[in-house]
Amino acid sequence: MKTLYLMRHAKSSWSFDELSDRERPLNDRGRDDAPRMGQALAKRHIVPALFVSSPAVRALSTAVLVARELEYPHDKIVVEPAIYEADLDELLGVIRGLPDAAASVLLTGHNPTVTDVANYLLPKGGLTSEMPTAAILCLHFRADSWAEAGPANAEFYFYDHPRNEN
């Protein structure tokens, strides 16, 4: 079995016109929400075997803040350039190319692609709206290899976001 924690990066700042899209940092809410989601994973006793992130500052910062809450070493986060600006097929390619030694992976990326992948992989209809910032969708795949991950063997486990008051 493989487990994917598909995460949209936390809320980013638009306050710095001089920065490129890739360089945009998290805003105050994002810096609060990312650790909150790490704490939510910790309450479920979840520590993914591998963290993979887009190289964009807002995505990598999200991954680092979540990792910190789970005592996952931030220097072990894999930065995958293909996640940034990936479309549905490209992000599925990243997922299917994950190392099989990692039974569970937290992947931090961007909308609209994160929501597109969630809707593609989710059994029975997908999400009713786009994934909000810092949301996490967890799927189990009945597979021994990430290369086999797809809608036919995906099972919904949970969906959480910072505004969920559970």
UniProtKB/TrEMBL annotation:
<protein>
    <submittedName>
        <fullName>SixA phosphatase family protein</fullName>
    </submittedName>
</protein>
<dbReference type="Pfam" id="PF00300">
    <property type="entry name" value="His_Phos_1"/>
</dbReference>
<dbReference type="InterPro" id="IPR029033">
    <property type="entry name" value="His_PPase_superfam"/>
</dbReference>
<dbReference type="InterPro" id="IPR013078">
    <property type="entry name" value="His_Pase_superF_clade-1"/>
</dbReference>
